[in-house]
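<discrete_fold_record>
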Amino acid sequence: MPRVVVFNSVSVDGFFTTPDGDLTWAHKNDPEWNAFVGENAGGSGRLLFGRVTYDMMVSYWPTPAAAKNDPAVAEGMNNLQKIVVSRTLDKVAWKNTTLLKGDLATGVGKLKKEPGDDLVILGSGSIVGQLARAALIDEYQLITVPVVLGKGRTLFEGIDESLALRRTRSRTFENGNVLNCYEPG
């Protein structure tokens, strides 16, 4: 059965994006980090995006600039299956992308019961919050980036109750990023 996995960068003060959606603070270019990101992009899984994240991703990854600047990640992003959750989109044009309409928790709950690869959420804070409240997230893979943003959007929007997590593994990178993986419980 597929699992739902969150993979996101967060600042030391707990934000995954600035108020205006900027993510440049989370991208540290060095060989170890680039190898890790390329390995992840070349793996299996289905990507699960909200509309805002989808719009951002589709505006870059299928372009010649992405293929030139980061060919391994571009290939992975373009070839992986993608699911976009949206109330406003009527169609999606990016290769290997399907649209999920209707209630998010119900739709993802059905996907978790069907055979298939894991569902990996990148960005999409509102989706993370909704699925966390519905107890549908199986693992949180959070990269803490050594920067303080001061303000921004939290990854756990709408969570108004305590969410207990158990750390399962950790990895520190030379660039200062730290990967911590958690499971509910």
Summary: The first strand starts at residue 4 and ends at 11. The helical segments are 31-41, 51-58, 64-69, 71-79, 104-113, 125-133. The chain is about 30% helix and 30% strand. Strands lie at 4-11, 15-17, 46-50, 81-85, 97-100, 119-122, 139-145, 153-154, 165-172, 178-184.
